Amino acid sequence: MNTFDEIVAADRRVEPRDDMPDGYRRTMVRQIAQHAHSEIIGMQPEGDWITRAPSLRRKAILLAKVQDEAGHGLYLYSAAETLGVERTDLTERLISGRQKYSSIFNYPALSYADVGVIGWLVDGAAICNQVPLCRSSYGPYARAMIRICKEESFHQRQGYELLMTMMRGTRAQQEAVQNAVDRWWWPSLMMFGPPDADSPNTAQSMAWKIKRHTNDELRQRFVDMTVPQADRLGVRLPDPELRWNAERGHHDFGTPDWDELRRVISGGGHCNAERIERRRAAHENGAWVREAAEAYAAKHGRERRAA
Ligand SMILES: [Fe+2]
Ligand SMILES: [Fe+2]
């Protein structure tokens, strides 16, 4: 038998049947649920473009990507259930506004270039956040993350490839890409959360080895990774303070508008009400499917017991 502290100290995984501190369990439920909600709500901005994809090829790619996000949500709800919570309860917390999802999905996707920029920047930021989570201390979460990260890298590449194609196209297409980059750049940087100085839970999450890097470290990694990709693409990142700092060996960059992040998280973004309303409608419209599945399972359970 190993205690929780020994497992964490030895860098092994905590499994559902292991004893764990209440605070660890609560933190994991909250983090995994918020992550699951983000995957599911994250289907909406791009899902809006499936019927308007410019070609059959683009439609097939986008459909696959949006379906992947649904799958990510389902793995993660399953991982949360190993901690003793119910998916229906978590969904209830989401649509009643008691549990959050990533603020990024409260921004609208205004053109098809947004599909490319979301893949490149939003899925790119998600990869930076999630690759270290493959070594997170909670076993079911870490294992879910390995598969999710493989699919996220497809998402990032399809976005970048779409943007490459548009940047080789007409002037109007190039402008649409630049316009989308201008709108998504700062919200993407906010995906890493508030600055370390305002992130009171980081120290505990790092001590429990849930998190491996701080918000600011991951944000820096994302900026360093993205700048050369922007150069190759031929787009300008909308930050006058962005420049290489040879002394630090990193790019310096400006400060995101943290008031905007607080406003969007607390419900004041462009699309908060619309996103939740659609999720609620989908949940209510799906009630008969859940009831039918339960009736079917109950009937077969009775038959099996009788046999
Ligand atoms: Fe995802
Ligand atoms: Fe993704």
UniProtKB/TrEMBL annotation:
Pfam families: PaaA_PaaC (PF05138). InterPro entries: Aromatic_CoA_ox/epox, Ferritin-like, Ferritin-like_SF, PaaA, PaaA_PaaC. SUPFAM superfamilies: Ferritin-like (SSF47240). It comes from the Bacteria. NCBIfam families: PA_CoA_Oxy1. PANTHER family: 1,2-PHENYLACETYL-COA EPOXIDASE, SUBUNIT A, PHENYLACETIC ACID DEGRADATION PROTEIN PAA. This is 1,2-phenylacetyl-CoA epoxidase subunit A.
